[in-house]
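Sequence design from tokenized structure. All designs in this work follow the same two-part layout: the structure record, then the generated sequence. An example of the structure record is given first.
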């Protein structure tokens, strides 16, 4: 095996740094207070025929405050992290195959798309679902474990109406594939992910290569897209935080409609932090609606003319004099929701409000 084909998994200790000594023992003692009763397929024993899934992991996360990150990463600048031996404290107690299942957390958006008769409204729901796939990464600074070649993970969620299987199909480069389908035959969701990680001194950048595909079987439509870049900042000093940036293009291969979403970089003063802005166009490249919001909160849809007029008015208005709209609505990006396109929203609690948006968290 030559150097180009080498691949390293996480290790349990630090060879070049002694600052981690004493941290493991305390962490394992803390872990002892948690319930570690064996479970079947990650769920508790059925009670009265009802399966209860666990809500917390059986052990806490290790503390990262007692070792030097710089002692490990100072020789890794500009290199791909998949070829570097990393301490186990960098990892969260999940494998990458398990992390993939979090894509399905907002399956109700796919179910909603299956019920809509208009192709543009379906694209709006699919766009919200595509954005929601990265929402679980907010404040998730741990690295998932690298699965073994041929390792699989299966999940069935009767409550959300889908089943999923994921498999590690390549060791180097590390490639994970997944396939999910509706229990009632409404949709099929599949794809592969090849995360390329690079260290740039103060941050770690992840490029999630791979195509994601969603098929709405009832409408005979196929949508494809790729995920945006992900960057973890302050890996050496300061508080760790996550940023998503880049352009995501969602293409409806059946109608030719396209949704272009721009995950904006944070900027120097954090004005654009978490902000997503884009539009939906038909096959003749005519803009039909504008989509904007935050990937940590929700997505809004509005017609282009209304969006531009409110954008100009917002620049002239005094933000201090703007009053809050209806209770429970968010003033995203400085816009007053009651000035935008009327409609409805789907929130976590299922309540209604007469402003069009799609919640993702």
């Amino acid at each position: 095996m030559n150097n180009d084909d080498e691949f390293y998994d996480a290790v349990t200790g630090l060879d070049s740094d002694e600052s981690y000594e004493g941290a493991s023992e305390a962490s394992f003692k803390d872990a002892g207070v948690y319930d570690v009763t064996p479970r079947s397929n990650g769920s508790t024993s059925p009670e009265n025929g009802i399966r209860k899934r666990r809500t917390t992991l059986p052990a806490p996360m290790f503390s990262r405050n007692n070792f030097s990150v710089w002692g490990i990463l100072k020789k890794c600048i500009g290199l791909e992290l998949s070829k570097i031996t990393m301490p186990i404290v960098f990892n969260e107690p999940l494998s990458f195959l398990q992390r993939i299942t979090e894509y399905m957390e907002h399956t109700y958006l796919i179910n909603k798309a299956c019920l809509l008769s208009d192709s543009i409204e379906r694209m709006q729901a699919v766009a919200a679902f595509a954005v929601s796939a990265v929402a679980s990464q907010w404040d998730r600074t741990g690295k998932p474990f690298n699965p073994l070649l041929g390792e699989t993970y299966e999940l069935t969620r009767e409550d959300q109406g889908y089943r999923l299987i994921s498999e590690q199909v390549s060791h180097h480069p590390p490639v994970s594939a997944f396939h999910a389908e509706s229990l009632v035959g409404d949709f099929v969701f599949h794809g592969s992910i090849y995360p390329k990680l690079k260290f740039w001194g103060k941050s770690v950048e992840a490029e999630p290569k791979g195509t994601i595909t969603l098929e709405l079987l009832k409408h005979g439509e196929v949508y494809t897209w790729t995920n945006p870049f992900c960057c973890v900042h302050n890996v050496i000093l300061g508080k760790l935080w996550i940023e998503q940036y880049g352009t995501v293009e969602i293409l409806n291969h059946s109608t030719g409609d396209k949704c272009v979403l721009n995950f904006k970089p944070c900027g120097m003063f954090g004005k654009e932090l978490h902000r997503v802005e884009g539009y939906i166009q038909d096959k003749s490249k005519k803009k039909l609606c504008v989509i904007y919001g935050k990937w940590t909160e929700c997505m809004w849809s509005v017609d282009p003319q209304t969006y531009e007029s409110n954008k100009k008015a917002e620049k002239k208005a005094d933000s201090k004099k703007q009053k809050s709209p209806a209770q429970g609505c968010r003033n995203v990006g400085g816009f007053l929701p009651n000035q935008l396109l009327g409609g409805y929203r789907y929130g976590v609690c299922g309540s209604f409000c007469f402003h069009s948006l799609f919640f993702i968290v």
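The first helix runs from residue 23 to 31. We note this feature because it recurs in several other targets discussed in the main text.
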